[in-house]
Design goal:
The chain is an alpha/beta fold. The protein contains five helices and nine strands.
Length: 195
């Protein structure tokens, strides 16, 4: 299985880079493709974490566009382990990450249809996840876990100092009753006080 992250921000923010590095650790460098990454520096920075492309997944001639599943919280079917045999690519990005959601998945899917790219959609529940969490959940499902067997925490609070905190209004996977976050994210939030 290949995991495609269609990067939909104009730049590569530090918090986003930390999530992308985390995704690389989750699925392995050879299984991750970062597409639509603008800027030479951003592509160089992401290079050690996976395959990086300037062009969008929808435009790339370097990626076979067959047996595709776009993760969409509004899809009617939930992602299951049996989908592992149906798809070669799971596509994420600009899909689960903004709060409140910008619903960019619909536009992305429209673009794919206009280009004649065939695909199906699946959801992993209706709650919004960070991109690395979405990939982690998909990987767990591909490895045999049922969605309803995965433990989650919705919305977490990070204490920045004695007077400030940052709320992360997303769903996170729990491991040993603690949310799994991208390594370095808490430190980044404490240093910046925000994303």
């Amino acid at each position: 299985m290949k995991y495609i992250i269609e990067h939909l921000d104009g730049r590569l923010y530090k918090w986003c880079f930390l999530e992308y590095k985390h995704i690389s650790k989750i699925v392995g460098k050879s299984s991750i493709l970062f597409t639509n990454v603008n800027g030479v520096k951003a592509r160089e920075k992401l290079g050690p974490s996976g395959h990086v492309y300037h062009e969008s997944f929808t435009d790339s001639e370097n990626i076979t566009r067959k047996k595709i599943c776009v993760l969409d919280p509004n899809a009617k079917q939930i992602l299951t382990t049996s989908d592992k045999n149906k798809f070669d690519y799971l596509v994420f990005g600009g899909i689960m990450g903004d709060y409140p959601p910008k619903k960019r998945t619909k536009g992305f899917c429209t673009k794919m249809r206009e280009k004649g790219i065939k695909f199906e959609t699946r959801n992993m529940g209706k709650e919004q996840m960070s991109t690395d969490t979405a990939v982690l959940v998909a990987k767990m499902i591909m490895d045999g876990k049922k969605f309803n067997e995965i433990k989650f925490k919705d919305t977490i609070i990070i204490d920045i100092n004695d007077c400030e905190e940052v709320e992360l209004p997303f769903r996170y996977v729990l491991k040993n009753e603690k949310p799994i976050l991208a390594p370095g994210l808490v430190k980044h939030l404490k240093e910046r006080g925000y994303f």
